[in-house]
């Protein structure tokens, strides 16, 4: 029988001891010599003392493990609760294990160190069994992710509301992330949403987002495959939103409201009905903009001058130029795959932090305009039939991968200065007849020339003897 506040300490200690006894036996397979020593010390301690945490401290000294992390790593799955029960340091070590303990895991991220607890809403009945564990430590904030699926899961909401109240009474700092699928009413989540940092709605039937308005804790909202007509206007009342992702929601409107979110850092609008991104021009904190599949989008001009922008993904849009990105000095990654109206990458010239360019299935005719992008590591020009040469890239000393599969190249051009180049894909390049442009590349490891009419005996000067070339015919 559980009482308010969790298991009595004596019961918890006995429970802990039994698990410790069991799991040391499993550990003995990895550390056989220790098993006999363990039984000797364990039985001696039980003869002269009660089940106390000092016994488990002795267990650690017995094993000679100065670093409890090493002990925890001996377990492929979640380490035994006994180890975590030794003291607060041991608990932290166990909860840093990949599988954590009792559903808890300590991680670090944008929010710093915190304790994560993940559960399905239907686990509410078993929640009492681990409540004492969640309430024991307050050294890190607790972040709880709960999955609700289907209308029947709405019956579980009150249990999680009560759980939140219990944590508050125990002065446990906590927040929620709600992952909700297949429901038709948001008002039911009004109370939990007040404590939520993130809300993920998938395959829900929506008519309004008003129930989400006004929650200051909310920093991330994701909507995917939701049906119904609804507007993003209500998000203006969520002043601390940093991430908004809308994917495959054909009925969404009011995207212009995003310009009122001054802390916005990440925006993803996948397959949405937009023609421009003018509503983002004043979002100066933006780090990532993803608008793949927005076929009506013709311009990225509003992104010009966003100094913190590092990622732009405009896959499958109808943009015709990237000149507007030239002033985005922090850009690291640009994806314009499938933008058939794009004929030049000249707008990217001089972006010194640019590391990745994916421009496959576009109508570009040259890549020399990337010569000033000194940080480039990857260039993808798959299926660019109008591209005839890879020339102009010789000064890119950090370039590691070039993927020109199915491109129209007839000559590689000199890449001798690309001293870090490791992998080149020139397969299915029907007009390519020589690999001479790959001379002088000491770090080249792999060249795929499958189905390209390149002489089989060609081995350019300066290659490592370990370089692998694939000529397989198809």
TrEMBL record:
Keyword Transmembrane helix (UniProt): yes
Domain of life: Eukaryota
Residue ranges crossing the lipid bilayer per the database entry: 20-42
InterPro entries assigned: Leu-rich_rpt_Cys-con_subtyp (IPR006553), LRR_dom_sf (IPR032675), SDS22/Internalin_LRR (IPR050836)
Keyword vocabulary terms for this entry: Leucine-rich repeat, Membrane, Repeat, Transmembrane, Transmembrane helix
Record carries keyword Disulfide bond: no
Gene3D superfamilies named among the record's database cross-references: Ribonuclease Inhibitor
Descriptive protein name: Uncharacterized protein
Taxonomic lineage of the native organism: Eukaryota, Discoba, Euglenozoa, Kinetoplastea, Metakinetoplastina
